[in-house]
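agent> call fold_tool(seq_1)
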Amino acid sequence: MNFQSDVVNVTYCSSDLFSEVCAVSIVSLFENNKHLREINVFVVDDSITEKNKKRILDMATQYKRNVTFISLPNPAEFYNDDRFTIKSLGHTYARMILGDIIPPEVERIISLDSDTMVLGKVDELWNTDMKDHPIAGVDDCMGQVALVKTQHLKADSIHCNAGMYLIDLSVWRKENWTEQFHQYIGGLFDKHISLGGYEEEVITKVVGERMMVLPPKFNLMTLEQVLSYKELIRFRQPMKYYTESQIEEAKKYPVITHTTNFFYIRKRIFEDGSDHPMRPQYEKYRALTPWKDDPAMTVVPTIKQRLQKDVWHMMPKSVAIIIGSFVRNEIRPRLNKKRDDE
């Protein structure tokens, strides 16, 4: 599977709990890219049941596409270090070892979160000239305060969201990025420092300026849909970011949307009764999956979680943004530090 313009490779990491959500993303990819000669999907399998694997395989067969399941390696065994666990690395740690677990003949791949939907043709993304960059992604508007306080990066550092990466696996393997990530994490663990942002934190810090920044239409996130441009800038306070016209263009014509959690959304897109703005699209693609007749997913929030959501929506949105920004920039960093010191 050497790089070809009309043969696209995509990978997901999914647990059984998120198998429905992953299937919705996969079917949206298939539906909107029927013109491609070949689509190969690699699902890193975090204990997906045989029943749900079969559902995904049957769905792929209907579209005459290929799906391969790859068992998620035990991190302690992969790294030969008992400190490397799912708890310490996160369930999607597989993104840091893709060069090792994806078949060696695959030279380029799009890595997607399960909670994404592909709403357009991926040709432009897939055929991006990466110019020897190992990874490309979309700036997630982390904000200068958060970059400095929680990520220990410079205020103008590149920080791309892990929900979508375009990866040149040939460069990855040549430069052995798997080992570079390993060394970085090991250095943190030696100092008894835990990962706050899991693989996104690691990839961001280690790849650094070698990360290629792509247009926002390739990973349009929830906060960009819920907030106006001015509200977004006020909330995140980035030193540099996309222009308002770039964000507005992405909102009109998104190629990939990432339905991330957000404090001003009461229920995630896959939950019954979700207030996410893209819920109609989710329902549209879910109706094309083997999960179409299953009851909608329900998540029972704790009393604390329900009260928090109620409080955010009781206040004017402008006030919620100001308070939310303060919590994100001043309260959370202190909690993270406390956790790291424990």
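agent> call fold_tool(seq_2)
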Amino acid sequence: MKQLQHDRKYGELDQVLSAFLGQPADDTPEQPSAALQAYLRHTWHARPWAIGIAEHQLRDYAHNPPGRLKLKLGEYYPLPDVSIGEESVLDWLLVLADHLRASVDSGEVPAPGPPRTHWEWRARFPELAQLLGGWFSQDMSDEFTGHEAALADYLDTTDQHLIARAAGEVAELLALDLEESDYAVGLAELGLEMEPPAPYSPSGWLALLADRLGGPRAEYGPSRKAEYDS
């Protein structure tokens, strides 16, 4: 299936179901699951118009599941495994659609708050996840001499607009004013596999990142990385 065709028919359906990866699909007609609440909390504040699209795509898929021809041609969306029996999954999609419709009809916007699922962390802080997962994974020590060298490489090789976006996401994360243990969990969800450098706590290192990412930028030669490594 071509990408445009996929996005038109299943793009937002895919966003909803991605929110359930690693989360129980325990929605009932009376109560949405934690995963669906996370999708609603993020999407209401980031892309509110997408909720209606998701409701339509979920309902359309449940009423018109792919038949033999679409299966043969590969022109369908393969539902991810959410630990629901094949005989019940279409009814579950309708339960999700009903909750999304009710949310739009009521106009009740979930209060902003800290992310509560892996999907919500990544959806809310995508560039920070790119930075942490790409430069501060368990392979960092094989590629760089330390945290500062890894950050210097990110700054030297990343577009300025993306660096500015990461700076804004760090500022937003610090504004949540979480406990240190919650910051540690959040950083791990975003891809950090190394401890923050001594003597920094998770929030202290985030404050340092905010300063480095948001500071004035200029063109540097090869000596800049050496300066960080020294």
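agent> summarizing second result for user.
DSSP finds 13 helices and no strands in the chain. The chain has two domains: 3-106, 125-229.
agent> awaiting next instruction.
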